[in-house]
Amino acid sequence: MANSTLENITGTILLAGAGKMGGAMLTGWLSGGLDPRRVAVIDPHISAEITALAAKGIALNPDVTTAGQVETLVVAVKPQMFREAGAKLKPFVSDKTAVVSIMAGTTIASLEEVCGGAVVRAMPNTPAAIGRGITVAVAANNVSAQQRAVADALLRATGSVEWVDDESLMDAVTAVSGSGPAYVFLLAEELARAGVEAGLPEALATKLARESVAGSGELLHQSELASGTLRQNVTSPGGTTAAALGVLMGEPGLRDLMIRAIAAATKRSKELAK
């Protein structure tokens, strides 16, 4: 695959949708060295933060004539708005345009029908806002090596990127990593609640839960050890951790709950794609 970096992108990048995820991507692009003059943003409700970037050369809500030839269209609108928004975006797309979608449940076939172009379907997650996201992407057959490289550079600006060849995997990807942060936040929420039930002041329980989840996540990120090994390293035989894990890993336990949760999210993702 051809290599590409944000600094050597020479075509126009059109970002459709500058909400939380689109805005996070834009921030990552600029921090990574993408020339602001290469970027145009289309959004009916542009924030003050995005408006301020116009002074750096970013074009806001251009029409087809002023946007010029768009090398890559990044679609970051809400999936339920795509049919309407996509029709307005299609005039910006030529047979040379790569269309990179980060919309959950929106298939390559739908994107090709509504927008055209060479489609890359991607699923990021919310830690992208702090540059620690993970994105899984799949490319249509007509995406060139150079288009895939540019898409990779744009997606990698907010974290790591994994590529798959089978689009049917994207529903499970959405369930595991796309929705995954919510499961972690729920863990912190319920850990704090359990701490209160055990007698801790609410503020202290919340602090302990948040820092334990955040610190453990960072340890998991930095360590080369498997998550199971890290868990075992905390667990002394017959100790307090073992007593708690006996509940969490019992029957029915966290494993069964997580399998059911991922299955439910995967099923819903497939339903939304229809």
From TrEMBL:
It is found in: Cytoplasm. It catalyses: L-proline + NAD(+) = (S)-1-pyrroline-5-carboxylate + NADH + 2 H(+); L-proline + NADP(+) = (S)-1-pyrroline-5-carboxylate + NADPH + 2 H(+). The keyword NADP applies. Signal peptide: none annotated. Residues 167-272 form the Pyrroline-5-carboxylate reductase dimerisation domain. GO terms for molecular function: pyrroline-5-carboxylate reductase activity. NCBIfam families: proC (TIGR00112). Catalyzes the reduction of 1-pyrroline-5-carboxylate (PCA) to L-proline. This is Pyrroline-5-carboxylate reductase. NADP(+) binds at residues 76-79. One of its GO terms (cellular component) is cytoplasm. It is an enzyme of class 1 (oxidoreductase). Its EC number is 1.5.1.2. Residues 16-105 form the Pyrroline-5-carboxylate reductase catalytic N-terminal domain. Pfam families: F420_oxidored, P5CR_dimer. The gene is proC. InterPro entries: 6-PGluconate_DH-like_C_sf (IPR008927), NAD(P)-bd_dom_sf (IPR036291), P5C_Rdtase_cat_N (IPR028939), P5CR_dimer (IPR029036), Pyrroline-COOH_reductase (IPR000304). GO terms for biological process: L-proline biosynthetic process. Keywords: Amino-acid biosynthesis, Cytoplasm, NADP, Oxidoreductase, Proline biosynthesis. Pathway: Amino-acid biosynthesis; L-proline biosynthesis; L-proline from L-glutamate 5-semialdehyde: step 1/1. Belongs to the pyrroline-5-carboxylate reductase family.
